[in-house]
Every structure is written in structure tokens, then in C-alpha cells.
Amino acid sequence: MTDPHPKRRLLRYREIVDDWPAFFESNHAPEPTTLRVRRALAPVDELMGRLERQGFSLTAVHGLSDYLRVDGGPHSVAQTMEHWLGLLHVQQAVMALPSLALAPRPGERVLDLCAAPGGKTAHLAELMDDRGPLVAVDPKEKRLRGLMSNLFRLGCTNALVVAADGRELPHGVSFDRVLVDAPCSAEGNYRKQGGRLPERTREFQFYITELQSALLKRGIELTRPGGSIVYSTCTFAPEENELVVQRILESCPVTLEAIDLDLPHQPGLTRWEDRDLAPEMARTWRVYPHHLDSGGMFMARFRKDPSAPLSSPPGGTEVDLDPDRGWKPVPAAFPGEDSTVAGDRIREALRLLRVEYGLAPEALEGLGWMVRKENIWVQTAAQWPVGSWKDHGGWRVVSLGLRAFRSAGGDKETPSNHFLGRFAAHLPAPGDPEASLRHRSLSDRELEHLLDGGALQDPTLPPGPVVLHHRGRLLGRGMVGRGGLRHEIPTAQARRLEAILGVAKGDNGNNA
Q1: Is residue 495, in this structure, part of any structural domain at all?
Q2: Nearest to 357 by CA among 411, 307, 421, 427
Q3: How far apart are CA 180 and CA 166, in angstroms?
Q4: Confidence (pTM)
Q5: In this structure, is residue 464 part of a structural domain?
Q6: Does some domain include residue 491?
Q7: What residues contact 194, with CB distance under 8 A and at least 6 apart?
Q8: Cis peptide leading into 459, omega within 30 of 0?
Q9: Which domain holds residue 451?
Q10: pLDDT tens for residues 280-294?
Q11: Which tens digits make up the pLDDT trace of 238-287?
Q12: Domain count, the chain
């Protein structure tokens, strides 16, 4: 149910907003489109040039080096090959802040306790240079599908996706940094939602603040002593922001830290209505729509007391324990799989990559491989906590890194579209000496024919998987069978590709 008077609801903040006229005006103006560049796949300047050649007008976002604002263009930037290939992610500028405030480093152990739909998770992976375990948690199947769709499209190789209620994520390991981007009343999305807000009843307020507090407490429990936690919401409501933080300060071994970002914001409240709050609440951030010409955001960064004990499973005694406890190398065989068979399959997949697909040897450095049922996954997490969680229910592993190969019966190991896209820069183009026969360049007409469900007859192609290219870009996988070459891009993605090519062709045939 929507609030029948959303503007009236905003009026409660009139006395605490630093510039009420600017706040009110921004909330009732269209929000600009911004995007984050996937710099592991494309430098910012290169992507900017590619989009500008298609007619887009772009501006750098001050203080956010990987973000561009779309000032104009022939169509939505999401209807570009660059988006389809995972070179960019459309995301509100303000949504960059929690990941930047957490500031994860490559190789650290990071937990995103409320991960879907994955924009912040993918940003965390980028900040980690895709190195080190990034555990992404969400309880709902539909949201998990959206999370994985974003992680796979953007080629994130270090994320372990876990289906679980964040409040019940098992103990057994601790993390260096934890992000709790909690569910909230979403008042900061007022302008994004066209001036609409969900109803905020007393029952909802009680439910949501209890949920936020429980998630934040579990995040702190799972943080190593001396580690960092960022709590964020996209609402203006002090009940869900400063008052939740106050409860945590009074009950958990944490202190508030300053957020080291050079961006406009307003300090958090040290008093709300008739209640005085901790003076250090001024270290929290309130980001209003007029600060970044984006949505609204609240953030608090905590540091766990270095002398605090690690938490043990329920019923255990809290004692000082090694923060490395429970972290183990990712095995080549998922628990329950035959390790000998897994080793043989991985060796064959690596041979195929080097010999038949021409993957550059340096691309294989630092990659880990794991077999789970018919799939071989590629990952750069290096470690995982799954072995320490095996005795706890209420969770399950959904994915780790990217699905790299799939075996159907006795057929040859078949590379996935997401794997090919992620490592496209390390694969030869058709015509290169290293390309072998498993690469095929398509003309415009041939690609249209394949996407329409047709097949191509090419006697030079060997049976089995083939890498498809179009205008110098790797599109994905095809398969040569008795009927000829057909594409094996999933149906939904193929329809999107068709639409993108149609839009680009209508604007400028050279941009197809």
C-alpha cells in the first residue's frame, strides 16, 4: 500500500536537513542516470569514448572515479552492447558509498549480509580486484536470481553466493569487513519512485527496526576483532538510522569511526525529537538527494573492539580464537564429489582452453577450479568457510565465481558464455594464429540468421563448441552439430541482444 501523502511525510525532516529548499527541489526533479564502469574489463576513458561515438553525452561524477552520468543519448544506456557485455552497471551514484566506505582490500575476507540485487556486491568485488572471498547472502530465490545475473554479467569471480537469512548465517568463521545494507522504508528512493513511498505503519516500523538491529548484530558477531562493519540504509528515518546505531553502541563491542570519503554529506543526528544520542553519532553520514544529485543514504562505519572475543556457535563459550579458524582452501571437488574425477575434468578443461581455444597462459594465473555435478566453476576466492558451516542448517551454497564449463553426458567439456565473456581479452580473434578453428566471426546477416533460430553451414568448423565473434566483439558460444552451426546464447539474453542490435542499427548502422 502506498502512502497517500508522501510529501507530508518528508516534512518531518524539515528541521534537520541542511538545505531544505535544495532537498525539496531535488526530490521532485528527475534523477539522472549514472553508471559504474567495470574497470577490470574496460578503462573508464575507453568506455566513455565507445558510448560517445554512439551519441551518448557523459560527464564524470565528482568524487566517484568509476562513475559516469548520462546527460543524453539516443536510447537507454542499458540498450547497448557495452551493457550486455558487462562493461558497465547502471547504478545510482549514492549506491557507491557503502562499498567505498567499507573499503575492502584484495585478499581480505568480506561479507555482504544483504546482497541482492548485487550492485554493491559487484562493486565490492571490483574494489577487491576480484581477489579474496566475498560471501554474498540473501534469503529469497527471486532476489538470488537477480543477484547472480548481475554478478555473472559483470564477470565477478570471487563471490560465493549463499542462500540464507542473514540473521541466521552460521558462526564458525570471522570476516575482515562486513557490509549490512539493510532492508528499510526506502524514503531515499522517493524521486526514483516518482514521488511514491510505501506506507510506514507502526507495525512496519517495529518490524523493520528489529530486523535491521538483528542483521547488524549478526554482522558484528561475524566480524573479527579489529575488523570493520558498515551499516547503510536508503531512508531518511532516524528510527531506522541513528536510533538503530544507538542501540548497537549500547549493546555491542564496537565504536563509530569517521568515514574517510571526500564527498558532500551531512553529519548524523546527535538528537532526535526529545532524545539525546551519542556525540560520536556525528561521525555517521546523511546523504540527501541534493548532495550527489542522486537518492538518499545513511551510513555508519563501526570498528569492532580489537580485544573482543570471537563468537562461538550457539551454546559455546566465547574465547579468543584464531581469526583464520574455519577458512580453508576451496577444494577442486565440491563436498560429495569424486576428487579424482574432478581433477581429471579440470585438467581436460585447462587443456581445451590452451590448445583448442587459444587462451593466453597468463589468464590462467591465480584461477581456482571446482567441480560440482556437471559444472566446473572458476573462482578467485581462494578460501571459503563451507567446511566450517557443514553442521549448521538453514543455508546452502548457490554459486562460486563463474560457471566455466558444463559437461552433458559424454560430450566434450563446453565453455560457458559468461566465462568466455569474462576472459574475452585473453582469447584470440578469428584470423589470429592462435585462434584455431574454434573461433568464428559472424557478419551482420549471419548473426541475424542465427538469432532467428537458423543454422550456418561451414565445413571448416570442427564439431562441438565454437566461440562466436561479431565486429571484433566476443558474443558467446555456438555449437556445430549435424545441422550446422547454431548459437547457444540463452534465450533471454539472445532476445536482449537482438533488441540491442536493432536499436543500434536504427540509430546508426555502424554501431550495430
Answers
A1: yes
A2: 427
A3: 9
A4: 0.94
A5: yes
A6: yes
A7: none
A8: no
A9: 428-512
A10: 999 999 999 999 999
A11: 999 999 999 999 999 999 999 999 999 999 999 999 999 999 999 999 99
A12: 1
